[in-house]
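Why do we bother with a discrete structure alphabet at all? Because it lets us treat a fold like text: something you can write down, compare, and reason about line by line. To make this less abstract, here is a complete entry for D-2-hydroxyglutarate dehydrogenase. Read it the way you would read a sentence in a foreign language you are learning: slowly, and without expecting to understand everything at once.
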Amino acid sequence: MSSAASQTPRDEIIEGLNAILGEGRVRVDEDSLQTFGRDWTKAWQPAPLAIALPKSVDEVQAVVKLANQLNFAIVPSGGRTGLSGGAVAANGEVVVAFDLMNQIRDFDPIDRTAVCGAGVITEQLQHFAEEQGLFYPVDFASAGSSQIGGNIATNAGGIKVLRWGMTRDWVAGLTVVTGSGEVLELNRGLLKNNAGYDLRQLFIGAEGTLGLIVEATMQFTRPPKDLTALVLGVENFDGIMNLFNRFQSQMDLTAFEFFSEKALQKVVAHSGLPRPFEEPCPYYALLEFERLNDEVEAQAMTLFEDCVEEGWVLDGVMSHSLEQLKNLWRLREDISETISQWTPYKNDISTVISKVPGFLSDVESLVNASYPDFEIIWFGHIGDGNLHLNILKPDSLDKETFFAQCGEVSKGVFDIVQRYGGSVSAEHGVGLLKKDYLGYSRSAQEVALMKQVKQVFDPNGVMNPGKIFD
């Protein structure tokens, strides 16, 4: 089915939902429709038919079966922090929100796992792990509001990928409701399981187009010891890559991020945080490592001094307390929230790490030529080849015109992505925002196979239609 509204009368759909959930958990008021029908993108006006708030796997299954029976579309909704329109309901869909499925249970200290409802907040899971003396390492700026189900559906990455990988690396098992209403328990927490296809991996990153993630068995690890950050000022982007190679070859880094002076200016003005050092630099690198002993700190300082002598680094500062660590990280992590007031057009692109300097240079040249009057904010995860290009909307332009202009130039950006063998969506998903550009990163054969996979799990097309591809 398409993303068009169901032909079934609205009252009949709401009556069916009420019969499953009760009237208190089916919302049709305008505030709820606007709140639950959107994510952090601002390009689409939400227009859902109703909001369903299930509390159990059985209730989710019943809602999906009703969708197949009455032929209405479902859009899954987690923390609504997505940046590609994957959770936008703009065409009369029923939003299934997982806010009430937020329990953590069945913790096993030997396996170091716990079972989470899809609505568990990322930060909630991080705190739970800490209470057990363990660590959940997937982290990003929206951890205080994003939900585990949404993290899994988009295979969220964030700031620690260099050391600990993406969300998929921490999903030991999944319970899903497919588009046809079947409940599947996938992998069941096993570390080793080569008995046929690993269907769990299909649902990770599928953006709710195959079915709904309702529970997940999440893996924990040991907590890092005395995390320490270095913020280094750099003259040019080649210098960033040189110091990355130097540090990475001799130390185990937990993160390696970068941001521009323009990004830093916005954050400092917005938050009141102090600059890392007095003199501005074109770019900044943020390195993090475990200060296991005095020798590790001494090694970090030696490498820093070597990079200064090489002319790659202009200045730097190291954290010596937890508060200082948090403040240095905020210089990087507060960028997205800070620039949101300018309605940024975001590109989340990647290539292999070795090609990043040329990749960024080519993209920056195109963007600067195309947008001489637009403000450009760069930041990203150098340690995994992921760059975030943010174009800020001028006050003089309306939103529709601005997004249309950015969309035209994005074709040129994605031509560069394709030339470098990269991805048009490194970690935010495809959703509505990137689906017209999927072919820049995936072959026609791959897309055709994806559509066949969707048909298997969602034969009536009720699951998040219009996302990733039509």
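What the structure line is telling us, in plain words: The mean pLDDT is 95. The first helix runs from residue 10 to 21.
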